[in-house]
């Protein structure tokens, strides 16, 4: 009998397994594939490895601007693919070692909830019963499809397939201009593919601050990405080996269509029907303070949880929260309001807390302050001045949210994460000095302006 048995070795599941060691809990982790989940095997890590190759490629193309003479760079797609794979396999191996070092028993097979424990079915169809005092379900998510566009792995693909493309597609349609759609548009645009993005709502990254999205929009258009917002595509047609994607009274012919319209929770076939857990449209309802389902010894974390963000780092935090409650009986809720979201496009776009629209919808009087990167010395030095910092503060009150777009936005957002989490007043945060010259000085300037004063 284990203290904890976990179904799913992605960020939610493996974080719970590792963290349990702090309390001396015995843990079994059931995984049907390798450990690492979507993030490590088919998501964050491989996507960012591709984006890094795209960044290097575009910087080498711009080398002349910096007085560095180089010949026109060539793309070695297979080498970039190999590098991506080696980054992934190194991290998977490292994670395996870490789990072993913490005494986690990794059981390979398909796990399903049964009679209070887990039944594991191996590849050879043999079954094994795992008994545990507590079970954490962390079965993750898969790409959603759209009617008429059935995934076939080559012409109509999900991000899982696209991360393993063996050659650069010359013409691509991306349906969905959310996080995955924008990251792929950015990297394929850098690599010189002809890219068409179709987003149903009226801007890319619909949840993000419109001014920050404008900076991304401009950069994507510079990469010759064609952006079609407020656009729903019609049913595809196969024409001369290409896929014809109709929209309005036009159409484009492409080599592949990437569907990036969100991810669906994996909760069918995991035995939830044999429990009292409440499942709403595939998502599991939990008590957000403890990650406990309606079944006291069954917890859910990660992409399957109803109403919480589908982000690897939210999964980590939920795994930690569940284990803390199991080990101590004390609730240690995740502060969802202070979880940053980073979109790793060129430029990066990052957000934390409430947007202006969300704060206003809550009936709060807010003051919005923003600062562009154009006058920021370090951004000029880096040749990346398209970006902004935007702060949303309660009028005469604390900082409620922030958005940063520009070079290193994904790193810079974390200082604003603390100001949001600690409900800092702009003047309190503005009292601290940013090193010069850094891109982060744009945050210092915005805080100063938000406190009613300004320098530059
Ligand atoms: P998403 O929810 O970010 O974006 C989906 C987009 O598709 C939305 O803008 C939506 O309006 C649009 N859409 C839906 N149906 C459409 C249709 N029929 N035609 C045109 N547009 C349509 O989802 P995603 O980009 O697939 O990402 C899935 C999840 O993974 C998200 O929760 C995302 O946050 C997460 N993720 C995060 C990162 C990161 O943190 N950098 C990276 C990748 C994915």
What is the fold's blueprint, element by element?
Blueprint: E1 2-7, H1 11-20, E2 27-31, H2 37-42, H3 44-61, H4 77-101, E3 105-108, E4 110-114, E5 117-121, E6 127-130, E7 132-137, E8 141-143, E9 156-157, H5 159-162, E10 171-175, H6 179-190, E11 194-198, H7 210-222, E12 226-228, E13 237-239, E14 242-247, E15 250-254, E16 256-259, E17 263-265, E18 279-280, E19 283-284, E20 298-300, H8 312-328, E21 341-343, E22 348-353, H9 356-361, E23 366-372, H10 377-382, E24 388-394, E25 399-406, H11 409-421, H12 426-430, H13 441-450
Parallel strand pairs: 1-2, 1-7, 2-3, 7-20, 9-16, 10-11, 10-16, 11-12
Antiparallel strand pairs: 4-5, 5-6, 8-17, 13-14, 14-15, 18-19, 21-22, 22-25, 23-24, 24-25
Helix pairs in contact: 1-8, 3-4, 3-6
The protein binds nicotinamide-adenine-dinucleotide (NAD).
The site of nicotinamide-adenine-dinucleotide (NAD) has 25 residues, from helix 6 and strand 21.
Main attributes?
five-stranded parallel sheet; Enolase-like, domain 1; FAD/NAD(P)-binding domain; 456 residues
């Amino acid at each position: 009998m284990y203290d904890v048995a976990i179904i799913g070795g992605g960020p939610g599941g493996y974080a719970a397994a590792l963290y349990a060691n702090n309390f001396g809990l015995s843990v079994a982790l059931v995984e049907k594939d390798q450990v690492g989940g979507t993030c490590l095997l088919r998501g964050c890590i491989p996507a960012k490895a591709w984006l890094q190759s795209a960044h290097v490629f575009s910087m080498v193309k711009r080398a002349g601007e910096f007085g560095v003479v180089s010949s026109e760079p060539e793309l070695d797609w297979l080498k970039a693919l190999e590098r991506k794979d080696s980054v992934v396999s190194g991290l998977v191996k490292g994670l395996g070692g870490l789990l072993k070092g913490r005494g986690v028993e990794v059981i390979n097979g398909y796990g399903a909830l049964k009679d209070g424990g887990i039944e594991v079915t191996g590849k050879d169809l043999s079954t094994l019963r795992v008994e545990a005092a507590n079970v954490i379900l962390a079965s993750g998510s898969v790409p959603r499809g759209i009617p008429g566009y059935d995934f076939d792995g080559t012409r109509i693909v999900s991000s899982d397939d696209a991360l393993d493309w063996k050659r650069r597609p010359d013409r691509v349609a991306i349906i969905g201009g959310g996080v995955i759609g924008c990251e792929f548009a950015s990297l394929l645009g850098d690599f010189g593919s002809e890219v068409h993005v179709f987003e149903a709502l009226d801007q890319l990254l619909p949840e993000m601050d419109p001014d920050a999205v404008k900076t991304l929009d401009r950069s994507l258009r510079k990469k010759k990405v064609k952006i079609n917002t407020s656009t729903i595509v019609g049913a595809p047609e196969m024409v001369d080996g290409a896929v014809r994607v109709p929209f309005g009274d036009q159409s484009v012919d492409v080599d592949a269509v990437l569907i990036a319209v969100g991810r669906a929770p994996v909760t069918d076939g995991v035995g939830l029907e044999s429990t009292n857990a409440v499942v709403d449209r595939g998502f599991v309802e939990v008590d957000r303070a403890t990650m406990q389902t309606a079944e006291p010894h069954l917890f859910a974390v990660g992409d399957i949880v109803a109403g919480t963000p589908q982000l690897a780092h939210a999964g980590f935090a939920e795994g930690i929260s569940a284990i803390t409650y199991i080990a101590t009986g004390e609730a240690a809720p995740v502060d969802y309001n202070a979880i940053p979201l980073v979109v790793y496009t060129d430029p990066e776009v990052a957000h934390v807390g409430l947007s202006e629209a969300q704060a206003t919808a809550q009936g709060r009087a807010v003051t919005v302050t923003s600062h562009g990167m154009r006058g920021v010395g370090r951004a000029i030095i880096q040749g990346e001045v398209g970006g902004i910092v935007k702060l949303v503060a309660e009028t005469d009150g604390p900082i409620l949210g922030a958005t940063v777009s520009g070079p290193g936005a994904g790193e810079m957002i974390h200082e604003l994460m603390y100001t949001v989490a600690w409900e800092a007043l702009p003047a309190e945060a503005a009292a601290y000095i940013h090193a010069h010259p850094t891109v982060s000085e744009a945050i210092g300037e915005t805080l100063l302006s938000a406190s009613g004063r300004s320098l530059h």
